[in-house]
Amino acid sequence: MTEDRFYEIMGRYADLRIAVIGDFCLDRYLEIDPARRESSIETGLEVHNVTRIRSQPGGAGTILNNLVALGVGRIFAVGFCGDDGEGYELKRALQQQPGVDLRSFVQSNERHTFTYTKPLVCEAGKTPRELNRLDIKNWTSTPGNLESAFIASIRTLAAEVDTIIVLDQVDEADTGVITARVREALGEIGEANPRLPILVDSRRGLKEWPPLIYKMNARELTALQRSDTEPASQIKQLATTVGRPVFVTLAENGMLGATSSGEVHHHPCFPIRGEIDVVGAGDSVMANLASALAAQATIPEALALASAAASIVVHQLGTTGSANVTQLRELLGQFDSVTT
User: Fold this and answer.
1) Chain segment 60-95, per-residue pLDDT in tens
2) Looking at the domain assignment, is residue 243 inside a domain?
3) What CATH number is given to the structural domain containing 22?
4) Which of 5, 59, 192, 282 is deepest in the core (most CB within 10 A)?
């Protein structure tokens, strides 16, 4: 990708309107200083003293963070949080992001705020070490009134936005934003708006999803296709079946993208430049694919931008990171100088 073409695509981002629909989480980092280790007088157990707390949007919120870093003009969040302290923190973190519209983001006393609490042991000169995570999730079905609110918001936004990003983050079906009803409505919206890019990613795979733009990893592709053939053959068949582009991440083997007609493109993985943490890489890929496609990038161009973003994010340790325009241009420039 030439520098002129890069800035041509990026120059369109400020005018984009993107909806992010799905499971917004609170990522709460508890930084522990091992030098302040104590023992509890009452129980005799070791006490971890927290010296700093960092909170930021996670899950669908990580996608939103990446869109903000790219300078996307308007971002509509469709999801929920609980009427609890974690919900207060999540809403505050979302409100602090420029260009974010929370009119379709619901706070409900019928739900807990989906929270990842991540204790980190932080020692000078060492990479932060994560202890066992503490999660807060919902274990009951999402109430019908919330489902109806999400569907109404999505239908309205479909006429206003340049693209829709959907993230199904929960492990238990129908306990988050993307229930069977919402998934069906997304299929209807996609059918009624064939030129509107709707990118979807689900933690539980995309077997029951309507034909939209799929993003998945190689394991999920194999499970969906029930095939042990090479990924390029699988993605070609899947893209022609759904009649939409399909994107597949291949870890150290890079990324594949197929057009709706089955033309397959590959972008290699960027070189590893030190220690890595893969948390958040998939969300950065999703944000960059969606933004690029909305800005009329080609499939190969979208793959290059998404691959660069993932490479930047995996090298950000102790946080769920994002990639901005300057970082993308710098890394792509280094890659181009090696490959040309």
Assistant:
1) 999 999 999 999 999 999 999 999 999 999 999 999
2) no
3) 3.40.1190.20
4) 59
